[in-house]
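Hi R.,

Here's the chain you asked about this morning:
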Amino acid sequence: MFENKKSILELAVLLLGIALLVFTFYIAYSVFTNPGTLEGFAELVPEIDPIEFGPEGEELEIGNVVEPILEMLSYVVAAILLWVMGSIGGRITKYGVSMYKN
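And here is the predicted structure, written out as tokens:
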């Protein structure tokens, strides 16, 4: 009786890992076929107001320089999240395979 429950648990962990990997690769595929899906990450970048300085109250347009860098970093964050999802899915799958072998 106990062996049957253990076998079901091993198979469930293996299938969970495989499902996470399939989901991760599906998201990566959808991003490569439709790059517009990453615009949601770019919307998270805050708008930077001009900074006033000097006795005349001149404005420094630092937002024009920093905003493209922050937007690019938002895409890097999306790539890192995909990498983490794939890594975790791979580790769960590896753990499920080692459980199933023993």
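One quick note: The first strand starts at residue 51 and ends at 53.

Cheers,
M.
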